[in-house]
Amino acid sequence: MSDPGNTDFYHRSPGAKLPEDRPRGGGPTRPVKHRGPLATAALIAVVVLVILVGIALFP
User: Fold this and answer.
1) Is the CB of residue 55 less than 8 Å from the CB of residue 49?
2) How many CB atoms lie within 10 A of CB 24?
3) Rg of the chain in Å (alpha carbons)
4) Residue 26: CB partners within 8 Å, gap ≥ 6?
5) CA–CA distance, 35 with 32 (Å, rounded to integer)
6) pLDDT tens per residue, range 1-59
7) Quick one: DSSP state of residue 15?
8) Phi and psi for 24 in degrees, rounded to 5?
9) What one-character DSSP code corresponds to residue 16?
10) What is the model's pTM?
11) In the Cβ-directed half-sphere of 11, how many Cα atoms lie within 13 Å?
């Protein structure tokens, strides 16, 4: 029995000539869309309101 060796094994692999499934960056990127200050303030207000209602209902 002969050992084919790593080089021979990988040269015959069909995956050696396929494109990458997940390319490593380098493509065009979209700018990140940030929430406005009004949306952030509303989110904080809702969280504070939920906390206050929880405290009021379960003293």
Assistant:
1) no
2) 6
3) 29
4) none
5) 10
6) 555 556 665 566 555 566 666 667 767 778 888 889 999 999 999 999 999 999 999 87
7) G
8) -95, 75
9) G
10) 0.46
11) 5
